[in-house]
Design brief:
The chain has 201 residues and is α+β, with helices and mostly antiparallel strands. It has two domains: 1-33, no CATH class; 34-199, Beta Barrel (L,D-transpeptidase catalytic domain-like), CATH 2.40.440.10. Helix content is 23%, strand content 25%. The protein has helices spanning 6-20, 36-49, 160-166, 180-190, and strands at 24-25, 28-29, 58-63, 73-77, 82-86, 117-127, 130-137, 151-154, 176-178, 195-199. The strands form two sheets. An eight-stranded mixed β-sheet has the order 5-4-3-10-6-7-8-9. Strand 1 (24-25) and strand 2 form a beta hairpin. The chain is globular.
Length: 201
């Protein structure tokens, strides 16, 4: 199968996903919507994390190879065999020219950048963005996340309207920032003790 044969790749991924019991979202094959890579990243993340993740049913995969205007945070439900994709912002330090594309990852304190790696979701709290959730970095590439106060929260600068009108979302301080409309679902479905993978697929 050639790497330049999209139809061949889709067929291969669809077959692989069917084997995993993950077949379709909204009547379209996962592979055809670009979500097949999120499923693979979710499974790989779980395998690498071992027993540190208490709940292995639903995971989040942030694909920062996509622009911020695209729904690139994938909620992967391994039990139901579904993937839902939502908007998420990246850090301003990862995109200093406001292009809408993540240019670099950084784990450095004060970088205001998004850090690549696996995150374990933690406890809920009420902060300046409302109900939010702490995360802990599990890799050397993101192990400063807790100290940097990287969290999951809602933000006014994340919305479909902003993505349409400006062609890009606003930028966070490195946090996983979601729209007001989506954050409740993220907090409910992920909850403490689950895995988030931030990468470029």
């Amino acid at each position: 199968m050639s790497d330049n044969d999209p139809a061949g790749r889709r067929g291969f991924l669809t077959t692989s996903l069917a084997t995993l019991g993950l077949t379709a979202v909204g009547g379209r094959a996962l592979a055809a919507t670009g979500q097949g890579g999120a499923v693979a990243a979710a499974r790989a993340g779980l395998a690498q994390t071992g027993g540190r993740v208490a709940h292995r049913d639903v995971l989040g995969v942030a694909d920062f190879s996509q622009p911020s205007r695209a729904p690139r945070f994938h909620l992967v439900d391994l039990v139901a065999g579904r993937v839902e994709s939502l908007l998420v912002a990246h850090g301003r330090g990862s995109d200093p020219d406001r292009s809408g594309w993540l240019r670099r990852f950084s784990n450095a304190p004060g970088s205001a950048a998004t850090a690549e790696g696996r995150y374990l979701t933690g406890d809920y709290y009420m902060g300046r963005h409302g109900r939010s959730m702490r995360v802990q970095g599990l890799d050397p590439t993101n192990d400063n996340a807790y100290a940097r106060a990287i969290v999951v929260h809602a933000a006014w600068y994340v919305s479909p309207q902003m993505a349409r009108e400006r062609g890009a979302l606003g930028r966070s301080e490195g946090c996983f920032a979601f729209s007001q409309a989506d954050v409740g679902q993220i907090l409910e479905r992920l909850g403490p003790g689950r895995l988030i993978v931030a990468t470029k697929l």
